[in-house]
Amino acid sequence: MTNKPLNDTVHRVTQRVIANSCDGRTRYLELMERERERTPERSQLSCSNLAHAYAGAQEDQAAMSAHLGPNLAIVTAYNDMLSAHQPYGRYPDRMKIWAREVGATAQVAGGTPAMCDGVTQGHDGMELSLFSRDAIALAAAIALSHQMYDGMAMLGICDKIVPGLVIGALRFGHLPAIFVPSGPMPSGIPNKQKQAVRQLYAEGKASRAQLLESEIASYHSPGTCTFYGTANSNQMMMEMMGLHVPGAAFVPPGVSLRQELTRAAVHRLVAMRPDGEDYRPMAQVVDEKAIVNAAIGLLATGGSTNHAIHIPAMARAAGIAFDWNDLAELSSAVPLVARVYPNGPGDVNQFHAAGGMGYVIGTLLDEGLAHGDILTVWDGGFEAYSREPKIEGEQLSWHAPGEAGDDTMLRPASAPFQSDGGMRLLTGNLGRACFKSSAVEPERYTIEAPCRIFSEQHEVSAAFERGELDRDVVVVMRFQGPRANGMPELHKLTPPLGVLQDRGYRVALVTDGRMSGASGKVPAAIHCTPEAFGGGPLAYLRDGDVVRVCAATGELSTTADLESRDPAPNPAPAAGVGRELFAMFRHHADSAELGGSAILAEAGL
Fold first, then answer.
1. What's the whole-number mean pLDDT along residues 296-318?
2. 230-240 and 356-366 helices cross at what angle (nearest 10)?
3. Of 103, 169, 325, 483, whose CB count within 10 A is highest?
4. pTM of the model
């Protein structure tokens, strides 16, 4: 089948991104070229430098000392508290063996933090979550700063971890890089059953013991959580940007196919080394078209709203300007071809079994809805990502996925679930915000009601339990932005607001905080910018003001006269759980639309 020409809207947005990025991209590529020329060959380093680097290399020490081949950096976000990252514990030893197979060596260059938002959800530690991305980028940069490496293997999966690794690695973009996932855990109890128990608990109809039993039945073994949240959206984006071995995203841990894909990643990274015949620096792989492809994949699959923050941040690290106008315009043209829980009935394992990323990329290319001419880490180009990997005999091979195995989860771009990508930009006198329409029934696209103002999540739960929210209401959760408290996710609000909606009330959430890929069925205007801290529009609202949230018209507004009021005072800085150590990040953070980053803002990127 011949692919259709590139969609006009995709072409127009891409050209605008290229034009808006001209100066920044030029400076970035010039820096990467200087870094390539400046980085010394290991043989030129002093004997003392080399001795320190080789001292722990054990059986690789002789080969490294004789400069017999390339040396790969392994940057790992391993810990065994985070289920998705637990499998990484054994990866380095295996990767070193696979490097030796092709005349190379590998070293663990360094580790990065890896926090689990599922553990900190609704608690103070969640206020460190977004800025952990900056800390991860800094840790990756420290790991790679020794200038001992010819390629980067980046081991990370979850929410802020992959974007942080991308940002850090891009500052060493003169080197090739491959991102190495470990795959999702086996499916647990049905997602509707899990959600029902959560709502019963919120209503006081299920005990804590029943809730814990349900949650453990859902999150039960090593691997990524199986709902289509930020972690799994990360893996989708690495495929869409050509930074994975094709089809690696959702192969589960512990199977031979997963091992062979990781082995192929090591071999491929060696083939892309700077002194080889197929040098592919990360700086060239992550270009404007790759960033647009990431956004297209996000929209086509109904992925995490967190990436409305992460895509602009990753783009900035490569000298590229991408904003919510670009995302919203792409959403108008990119159809929704996948429904994965919480936007559909099945989880990522079922999505993968039905055709997964191979099917998604194939149908997008068929309809001219993705850039097929991007440079990828794989020598088959981006079209290779439209096939799924298998082991035949002892050989790794790729095959077209064919028709979708489940049309309740996957549909062709020519006959999608809906004609747009389900991510709407809302604007008005309350600022700019994102609305994930793919998760919301169309009859709830417009909510207009008196608002109730909160600044703490527990206040919402308390008001719900007292019956004070049993009405049509727009819940405004403010002072949750990057500069106020680090922009935590607010998933604890979903069960009570879902109960109110099920009772027949017209309910919406407006917040300068985050909801992420687990955003549910309740209409939500999230990531509001300017944030309330420092005098953004939400700071001027009062209880009872009528607020309108409308995904149909793209409106976020109030009838109240905001200009006649003084803003609510900024909250005092929080302390405890290490939050005081992140004061610098809060102070220097920029807006959610720019990525909510302190390090990128201060670096002038």
1. 96
2. 50
3. 169
4. 0.94
